[in-house]
């Protein structure tokens, strides 16, 4: 970065600027007040849900959700965790979401690289194909895929159902196939903003396509990959449709269905469900907190730093 | 990234591979069972029942349960039965079972059904497909009725009404006593169906209900209009805003004595009552509307067990024998006793079951169903699932929203009914 | 990045070395033009065999996957929309009957289509601009910005179950917090049951999630804007608003496109919130819910459900074509 980037207008010495500096300071307070209000408004429903999860069902159904507590405890959290056998389902979800995110990002970034950097023939068509595919509602493709998966045999060591249906392969491949489109779109857009001369320099150095992709382009995409990784993990983690449709063995279902186990045929203890939901939401929140530094601070890479 | 590449190869690979020989085949003694009983109480009660089966089985037969939550199981039933079903699975009686029987997804069990003892003719009818063969082994059911609190009725000196007029008079009196007469809810889409079914069966009889649900009667028929007209006369006594209220909230209002009565199934209201107040719960059968049909029919959804035709291990004769052995055991009174000991919200279908440990409410429920001339299943179990979920749920919510436009409503239902029921043939 | 400084090889950089010229889209436009020139110059021999193999494999797999998983089934669905099929028995050809039924005899269809458009308008005109505003404010480098951005993003990570629960928690007529706060216990508002009201409540909930999402994307985009650009504008005497709309906003074009696409996706694919609240009935109908009701659940009116899906598909294709046209124009301008 150049030296010509002063921290803020307030530091400027010129008289007309000083007046503005004052305005900025009062403006700052206004900004804080506004942001704080909005943040609290965004947070309030979540806090209320957490609050409800600490109270017994009898109490909230008797006095309503907006009432003073008589008994607070973490009992529901313990119950939600053990009643729904969450560990088992949590592992199932990770088996799908972790490879799903990595493979999606890998293929999407390579495709975007071909489209935006190499500009292979038919790039625009490819981009359209992937982008448009992602606009389709998921439910559209459910039935044909079900029929297809039911006919693809798999050996026993890959799937104990002997078909693609009722196996993680089905869910995983659909997750990847469906999400690649969005990632290609975002990454292609991002890669266009990267300076092209870096690549050209590498080409002159005799680097092959793989090196250009892996060593030169990918590191520059770290922020975009981090942002996409967060979103994709959230989506795959929270998805329930694909598992619902392609898995019939209850022991293979993902964590979203552990929450359904807390929902009864008739009776649902919503406070217990809230506790379960909070537990289930934690991993996505952690992923966000871990990755946010990369994708928010890092984007300057593509434009200014070098 | 290397790992990612390898992973990607593995993804593409399955499409190219073909299955080479089987995995471990069944031992002929383990029966797999698809269960929708994901709630803690029934889950435990079923586990008790299956271990009791294993214990009494002389050949060392046992049950391996595959539990999927109730809602998912239901949404998935089509794919489940065509894909990789378990040998035995839990499902409902009535049209919803007959539909799959007709599609060839269920095994005929007429041979073992003939040996079942203690089942009434009404039960046999509900276990029978359109082709006259038996497919379902019934296990338990729960009747629908009008629930109320004994203490409220005592306090104001109310008595259970027998006819619609008495019912309305009672409702009027409750209004004077500053109670909302009837708790009412339909946010979930199904609770109000119980009221529709009862008004229909009380005014037009069970046969009409059955035919209407089977798509054989017209919804624009005056008899259907009468049902909605009668219902409209009750609505002023019902809780307003039903479309935004869950059944749990409605049951809570009954528990809190804000409302006086509510049309529910046996398991519903009790769950909203603290344990020490559950004895205060009572019910009376839905009142009579026309003398011709009296209080003949009782709505009592039946759950039971079926054999899935597409199950691979059932092709093994030994497993088939074990599965039938399991069903035959489940059809006995003892088997039902084991289950109901853990789940007192239902009642046994077999008259060989031991009712001595029943709660007073359960005993009363047994009286209600055993006195019934006909047993209906419930709107969403007596008709095609696509008709009930895509047509009837919104239609009844429309009616609650705007009870005046019965004409537009029944024409709308009839038009959609035609598109659904004709698409079948 | 030592490679960045490698002086060799490429054609001489025609750009002035001023830092202000390094803004992202400007650079992209210029480099875009140059790549074309250099690609043409390098001709068809720019890839070695090994390169072609790598491209063939690593581009081939995702394309194949996209075809098999997304486009093949989509085409199959289009075909199925002209048939009647319960998912089990035989498939019979019925021509346009499903569409006829859909437009004339399915009361939920038109409200659903209307709600989808309303959803798009609300997200596009309210939630997305609000997200941009929040991003701009957080980006001004105020203190606690990490706290704000995390808080505002939090609704994005929530799953279906918890959103439905929260709606019940706050908006339930009898037990909800909102009516308790407003104190109207005598004649409580039925936020979720009144069909003139509930769609707006749900739109607020949708905006709640959408805003955080948009904000994060814009925040990332704003961090990439060269501060010297703003400096230059400020020196020229431009007001903050002027600087934003004339200088900063145009440089956000790539982010705008992404956000635009996401907004369209969210509006057309909207599903989970209404499904969690009341299964998308009683005033909350959406096309995706109707597709689900008919295809995914026990109902299995595959042909009819596919017809609804095709309508939704046509909606999305409308946007795709618009986007395509713009993209081609943009390309030719480069």
TrEMBL record, chain A:
- Membrane topology per the record? Multi-pass membrane protein
Q: Which parts pass through the membrane?
A: 29-52, 89-113, 125-148, 168-188, 270-291
- Biased composition (Low complexity) is annotated at 1-12
ABC transmembrane type-1 domain residues are 90-291
Q: Does the keyword Transmembrane apply?
A: yes
Q: Which GO terms describe its cellular component?
A: plasma membrane
List the residue ranges of the region (Disordered).
1-22
Enumerate the subcellular locations listed in this protein's record, separating them with semicolons.
Cell membrane
Q: Which UniProt keywords apply?
A: Cell membrane, Membrane, Transmembrane, Transmembrane helix, Transport
Q: Alphabetically, which GO biological process terms does the record hold?
A: transmembrane transport
The organism sits in which domain of life? Bacteria
Concerning InterPro entries, the annotation shows: MetI-like, MetI-like_sf
Transport listed as a keyword: yes
Q: Which family does it belong to?
A: Belongs to the binding-protein-dependent transport system permease family.
Record's protein name:
Carbohydrate ABC transporter permease
Give the source lineage, highest ranks first.
Bacteria, Bacillati, Actinomycetota, Actinomycetes, Kitasatosporales
From TrEMBL, chain C:
Q: Where are the transmembrane segments?
A: 52-72, 117-138, 150-171, 199-220, 302-325
Write down the InterPro entries for this protein, in alphabetical order: ABC_transporter_permease, MetI-like, MetI-like_sf
Sequence ranges of Basic residues compositional bias? 31-44
Please list the residue ranges annotated as the ABC transmembrane type-1 domain.
113-325
Q: Where in the cell is it found?
A: Cell membrane
Q: Which domain of life is it from?
A: Bacteria
Keywords (A to Z) from UniProt: Cell membrane, Membrane, Transmembrane, Transmembrane helix, Transport
Region annotation Disordered: where it falls in the sequence:
1-44
Q: Identify the Pfam families for this entry.
A: BPD_transp_1 (PF00528)
- Could you name the Gene Ontology cellular component terms for this entry? plasma membrane
Instruction: List the CDD domains.
Output: TM_PBP2
- GO biological process entries: transmembrane transport
- Lipoprotein listed as a keyword: no
Membrane topology is: Multi-pass membrane protein
Query: Which residue windows does the record flag with biased composition (Low complexity)?
Result: 18-30
Major localization class: membrane
Family indicated by similarity: Belongs to the binding-protein-dependent transport system permease family.
- Identification of the protein by name: Sugar ABC transporter permease
Q: Which organism is this entry from?
A: Streptomyces jumonjinensis
* Taxonomy of the source species: Bacteria, Bacillati, Actinomycetota, Actinomycetes, Kitasatosporales
